[in-house]
Amino acid sequence: MKKTLLAIVPLLAAACSAPAPEPYGPVPSAAQLAWQRMEINMFCHFGPNTFTGAEWGDGKEREEVFSPTALDCSQWADVAAQAGMGGIILTAKHHDGFCLWPSAYSTHTVAQSPWRDGRGDVLREFTDACRERGLKAGVYISPWDRNHPTYGTQEYNTLFANTLREVHTTYGPFFEQWFDGACGEGPNGKRQQYDWPLFEGTVTGVNPHCVMFSDVGPGCRWVGNEEGHAGETNWSRLHVSEGQRTTEKGGSGDIDGDQWIPAEVDVSIRPGWFWHADEHPKTVAELMEIYYNSVGRNGLLLLNVPPDSRGRISAEDSSVLMAFRAERDRIFGHDLAQGATIKAYLGDGVWTEARSLYPTENLTDTAYHSFWMLKSKDTSDITLEIQLPEEREIDIVVLQEYIPLGQRVAKFSISYSFGDNKGGSWIASGTTIGYKRIIRLPHPIRTRTLYLNIESALAPPILNRVALYRS
Fold first, then answer.
1. CB count, 10 Å around CB of 140?
2. Cβ neighbour number for residue 269 with a 10 Å cutoff
3. Confidence of residue 90 (pLDDT cuts 50, 70, 90)
4. Distance between CA 368 and CA 365 in Å, rounded?
5. pLDDT score for 351
6. Closest Cα to residue 436, out of 407, 410, 405, 401?
7. Mean pLDDT across the chain
8. DSSP code, position 442
9. Which residues are CB-contacts of 90 (< 8 A; sequence separation ≥ 6)?
10. Are strands 220-222 and 263-268 parallel, antiparallel or unpaired?
11. Is the pTM of this model over 0.90?
């Protein structure tokens, strides 16, 4: 998949009459890049807990407790699409072991419930609804099972692998497989020693393009919190040793990591993960703060929106999501960098067009696979001067690295000119950029000239977007 993705680069190089740049360090697969570019996806926690009021069911719930009165997965998909999300991940089996499909490997499923006379299949309705509306479907299947009698034995590992194969062959392909790391006691009081190579190999064997989530990947990693923020420094690279299942670097990654495992930021729109009648969604302002601190810090936002006991997303949640989408459109709908002239300088302060291997105008177009880089191998003391057609007021700067060739920038700063101050007044700074970095300035500035100073990079920087906005 990496070879397929990198095949794009020589084609672009030929069009620009420039040599193809060499990738630096680990790079994303085609599936990982497509995943990152989705930016925001929906999580749907739904199951017996929706009806009992629990967050973690104990596996002893009677099957008849699952009784949605008006299940409508098409409504979930409509809400997600209108909210600007690219995909939805459904908790098809949570820790209570209840399967939202009629599994051949469990007797704790929708087939044993009276819902739709035991012939219902939430997972089928969910995947059909996603595909009908052009959304990607993902699936959460918890390896912890507080109901199955074989949990805690080697037999269960085989059974769980068979469950994964059943789901991925019957309902797939899925864009993401979500593996929760929880591992508690089963009905017999035993804990399971999970066979992760077996689980991951089973998914890969059926769906090689599926991005697998866990604390340490291998497709994407947990950010390390459920509050909705990545670290100020966030590398998409990670060190993972054989057998390692947790990391303290979820929010920051490793600057010298040898695997490409980007961060996913999971957070719920409500206080709980499952729907509870007495809880209410976050405000638009709170969701925007989460957006800036997740997508805006080189992460992907996975926003949980739990369906209610009818089997629908509540009007209260839907209204907030529509307003959240409208606010993003309002702020990011007009790029104030359009029409700008951009020059690249090195430490000597001299500019010539010949210094750029790929042109600076690529920084303000909207084609993802166009980018700017220097001919030289410089990794520090590089300045991009952004000259606007006239003075414009801005308070947000968006930067993007071309991650198919690796993540490189380790430190940058932003300055600007105003009045007679032609040298530039410092206004903001940061460390990593990655797929996307959104910098909110401490106050609005009115200027015609902005400077992006790349102070440190692991390899010659390659950027594919500079955009300016006024919130």
1. 19
2. 25
3. very high
4. 8
5. 72
6. 401
7. 94
8. E
9. 44, 46, 100, 122, 123, 126, 137, 138, 139, 140
10. parallel
11. yes
